[in-house]
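The record is passed on directly below:
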Amino acid sequence: MTGLVRERARLVRLLRLAGRARPAALIACLLLAAAAPAAMSLAAGWLVGAIAAGGDVVAPLATLAAVLLVQRTAESLQDPLGATCSRSIDGHVRTRVRQIALRQRGIAHLEDEEFQDLLSRASDRGESWRVRSPGTAATGQLMIVFRAGGAVAAGAILAGHFPLLALLLVAGCLLQRSYALRQWSSTVSVEDGLTSKQRRTEYWAEVASGAEAAKEVRMFGLADWVMERRLRAHTETTDIMWTARMASLRRQAPVAASAAVMALAALLVPGIAAATGRLAVDGLATCLAAAWAIFQATYMGQEALDIAYGLGALRALDQLDAPGADPGGEPARYGPVRFENVTFAYPGAAEPVLRGLDLTIEPGEVLAIVGVNGAGKTTLSKLLTGLYTPSAGRILVDGADLRRLDVESWRRHIAVVFQDFVHYSGSVRDNIRLSAPEIVASDDDLRRAIHVAGASDVIEDLPAGLDTSLWHTGTGGTDLSGGQWQRLALARALFAAEHGRRLLILDEPTANLDIQAETQFYQQVIAGVPGTTVVLISHRLSTVQHADRIVVLDGGRIIESGGHADLLRAGGAYARLFRLQAERFTAAS
């Protein structure tokens, strides 16, 4: 019971997030709307009594009209005011959810199914039965408080004539409401268990309507297949929900029966009293109106379900918030990076990607990491940037364990182009500056990075140059080709490297470039960032010949290490792969 009261009080406190004026206006409207039914029962009795006595009806009629006007005005305002407060609260809560998702030092939690389920529940936008949001729960709780007050006021008026009937109606209606709410709330836990299935439904909906899969869906004629998968996932979820809701309805049969009994009592008790002369006609009107006000005030509206769903979102938020923020650590100093017996497996994976890996990266070195797909090349870069931590072993930065360092300070030493780099919506200027937002850069600084990345022609051809908006789905936006986006991503990383980032990581940086552009790129990049440590990850061996050192990964281990010429002379895996790629290129030519 104490926990329930604490949760409900917490909901009311959330209203502070909406400011002062809007909650105050909402409270005023709720107070007037809650008091109006009780006042109306008194005014109705006054009017009926005046009519029966043949007296002046202007005053009671005007009073009744005024009460009705106040009630309708308050009720018409409370919905938009409540929605405004709810949106403000939900904005704060969803911002908090995003902060929690972003604050962790790595990204492993984003691939955890339980974390994703909690994230979905904490920021649910209402794809299920009702909007599951703390904002609607907070305003719903406020409505219930005032409606309960209205029920008590109407009960007090009825108690002036029939105390036991008033007690029966108020207590009975509240018990009915509590029981019905408990039955409906049981469906919330069922729906919470379906979060993963709901995300699968959303996935198939995105495949059907999103741009990412549009080409293959149309080329392979997958439209019917995708829609069938989406319908199957949706039906599987809704069938379970429907079964739970129908079971809840069946369990509420006693509530319906008891409601009928109370309604009958509310009519018969005052009616018999009036028929036998124990209650005047004005008292009859007052009692009937007061009884109706009690029924209205205790009716379980949608706000009760809003609370049940919104509390679920808050509980999910609490679970997300429980681990606490990244504890930080000592500032990272740039120096040699050493992988010592590092083993790593992705969350939920049966086999590790890296197995007992040992590798040292010296400052100023151009290191190439090559190997077949799945060898662990990209995984190594994710460990190097602190996005994941080793399952076993350790990574030392200038002799300090990366786990104990402030990962944000370490990342300020790094510029990176990931294989799946992001196409940011914004201007060309913003797309480049994002890699070092603390730098106040001139256009010349930006153009220098663009030139080294070989993207000068691309930018010059854009309608507004550096100010061109890159957003292919937006009005006035421009999209780039895959190779052009890649050059822009390279310019972004090079801009950071030119402004103090000491470690440049390039993961398959030339995947969308042709051979000629690829050769030109490496000549420009290596010459353009002298003294910078460059880690180059590639499966094209033609791109790594000028590296100071080449390591070959296979099965999560380093099987060869050396310069290009030395590895060719050794006649091992690198030499075989190089000759194979050279033969394919010659044949294609």
Q: What stands out?
A: DSSP finds 21 helices and twelve strands in the chain. Residues 2-321 form a domain with the ABC transporter transmembrane region fold fold (CATH 1.20.1560.10). The chain has a mean pLDDT of 84.
